[in-house]
Amino acid sequence: MLRVVCFPDFGCGGVLCASLNNEKVKMTAQGHMPSKSHELLKISSSTMNFNLDRWNKAVSDVSDNDRLKWLGTHSHPLDIYTRDEVEHIIYVNIASMESRSFLALRHCKTEKQYKMACIEMTMYPCSSPWTELLKSDKVTCIDLYHLVNTPDYRKLVLGRFHYEESIWETWYKSNDFKEDMPVALAAFVNVFIRPTD
Description:
Number of strands: 4
Shape: globular
Structural class: alpha/beta
């Protein structure tokens, strides 16, 4: 049986898997926290191009020892939550405005890149399956923004899975999104949420 973390691209899957598995991993220069567990089931993009053959191959390649860990994938939970080999899924979603803005911010380095990322994230919000919540006993839905920015929320939703908070603290030292978020959210609201005259 597999415990799977489903997350969109740049959806903090590395730090989440590392904290759930208490893995000590080095940060990259870009502020990422790559871990073996967060890579093992990354077989498809987050555009719902699910490939069952590639999934089955990835599952068969998972060692017995790694099956005891939380494993990361960009595959959407809708594609895998009914599969027999999946015991439970932690689903990092971007249903909230804050989460969509945060994900856009994670994709870019400049104001122009941020504006383009916001357009991509909001022009067709209904077309992104990552904005939809999923109700199932096998799925725990987690809001990306609050997962990253609210330790009490993290404790509430991850506490039963015995995660390691100190790994999030290490991640924060290489990521300055807390300082950027108020400006990012204001830009997001001004450009995309407020009605035009």
